[in-house]
Amino acid sequence: xxxxxxxxxxCLVPPLLTIFLAIASRQxxxxxxxxxxxxxxxxxxxxxxxxxxxxxEFQWLPYLQDTAGxxxxxxxxxx
Length: 79
Hints:
Distance between the termini: 20 Å
Number of helices: 4
Order of helices and strands: HHHH
């Protein structure tokens, strides 16, 4: 199906986790930060996938630079 997210149902985890944590702990700001961190962890490609695509040994610094560059480039695109 065209236009569907590659992460599927996992995209529901961050908002549900945030809501649950905010209600259970009554710490809204901390819950939001945990929700944002979980969304980032889900959306970032894995190091193993990156290594398979590039064919090079995995290194954190170039990986983070490429990921940040792709993110900021996507922000500048017009749809």
